[in-house]
């Protein structure tokens, strides 16, 4: 099984901050890494797929990148609507999610 | 556009079988994979399994012995059965479209349904 280690588990930030969330895969997953945003009481929403492709309608302040088995979600300038929980997901072999990162207002 | 809606009992007794259905509307179930995911209270997402419209399946190894996912193309829905449930199976259960056409993403989700395991 492929293990996804996501960090940090929680993060406090302010509007306008640059925020980075990381996911590390236990083995190579090529670029089969997706990011989801989840707000309280709601289903997850696809943000980024294949490491760096923004889903339609997702603001350009969101970006994704990869270095080997390390994947990063970056929000360049945090907006009030971005406070949420973010989940990474690998779909290279079956499906595994990271533990999630709760992004809170400082 | 495609919409998903989960349905099923919100309360299941320990040792019994949890049964949920996901109705696909606004599009055909054919041509895609369909998945179940759950989220225990205050925890992260856990993939349960998926099914291709033709009936082939893949399950999370940790749940495989208790899970059955089936599809009914005539009714445009797919279903989840989880046997021998315990309190640890209490969660919000989501169904989602697993879109292999755009690199294996879950691009459409149901709103989720809460299932509590309790006597």
Write the layout of secondary structure elements.
The complex is a heterodimer of chains A (about 110) and B (about 120).
Chain A: E1 4-7, E2 10-13, E3 19-25, E4 33-38, E5 45-49, E6 53-54, E7 62-67, E8 70-75, E9 85-90, E10 96-97, E11 101-105
Parallel strand pairs in A: 2-11
Antiparallel strand pairs in A: 1-3, 3-8, 4-5, 4-9, 5-6, 7-8, 9-10, 9-11
Chain B: E1 3-7, E2 11-12, E3 18-25, E4 33-39, E5 46-52, E6 57-59, E7 67-72, E8 77-82, E9 91-99, E10 105-109, E11 113-117
Order of helices and strands of chain B: EEEEEEEEEEE
Distance between the termini of chain B: 39 Å
Briefly note the structural class of the backbone of chain A.
Answer: mainly beta
Q: How many strands of chain B?
A: 11
Which protein chains make the most extensive interface, counting residues with beta carbons within 8 Å of the other chain's beta carbons? A-B, 25 and 22 residues
Proportion in β-strands of chain A: over 45%
Global shape of chain B: globular
Tally of contiguous helical segments of chain A: 0
- What is the typical, i.e. mean, pLDDT of chain B? 97
**What sequence of helices (H) and strands (E) makes up the elements of chain A?**
EEEEEEEEEEE
Gyration radius from CA atoms of chain B, angstroms: 13 Å
Level of helix content of chain B? Answer: under 10%
Task: Give me the Rg of chain A, rounded.
Answer: 13 Å
Shape of chain A: globular
**Proportion in helices of chain A:** under 10%
Which regions of chain A contain 5 or more consecutive residues with pLDDT less than 50? none
- Mean pLDDT of chain A equals 97
In terms of DSSP E residues, the strand content of chain B is: over 45%
Biggest sheet features of chain A: 7 strands, mixed
Summarize this, please?
Chain A has strands at residues 4-7, 10-13, 19-25, 33-38, 45-49, 53-54, 62-67, 70-75, 85-90, 96-97, 101-105. With 106 residues, chain A is mainly beta. Chain B has strands at residues 3-7, 11-12, 18-25, 33-39, 46-52, 57-59, 67-72, 77-82, 91-99, 105-109, 113-117.
């Amino acid at each position: 099984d492929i293990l996804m280690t996501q960090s940090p588990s929680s993060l406090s930030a302010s509007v306008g901050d640059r925020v980075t969330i990381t996911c590390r895969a236990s083995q190579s997953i090529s670029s089969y890494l997706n990011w989801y945003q989840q707000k309280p009481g709601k289903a997850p929403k696809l943000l980024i797929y294949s490491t760096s492709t923004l889903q339609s309608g997702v603001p350009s302040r969101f970006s994704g990148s990869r270095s080997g088995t390390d994947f990063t979600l970056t929000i360049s300038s945090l907006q009030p609507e971005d406070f949420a929980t973010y989940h990474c997901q690998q779909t290279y072999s079956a499906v595994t999610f990271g533990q999630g990162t709760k992004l809170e207002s400082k | 556009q495609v919409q998903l809606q989960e349905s099923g009992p919100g309360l299941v007794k320990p040792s019994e079988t949890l049964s949920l259905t996901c109705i696909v509307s606004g599009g055909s179930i054919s041509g895609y994979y369909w998945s179940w995911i759950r989220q225990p209270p205050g925890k992260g997402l856990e993939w349960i399994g998926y099914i291709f419209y033709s009936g082939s399946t893949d399950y999370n190894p940790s749940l495989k012995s208790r899970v059955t996912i089936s599809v009914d193309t005539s009714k445009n829905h797919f279903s989840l059965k989880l046997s021998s449930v315990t309190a640890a199976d209490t969660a919000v259960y989501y169904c989602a479209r697993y879109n292999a056409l755009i690199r294996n993403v879950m691009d459409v989700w149901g709103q989720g349904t809460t299932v509590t395991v309790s006597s």
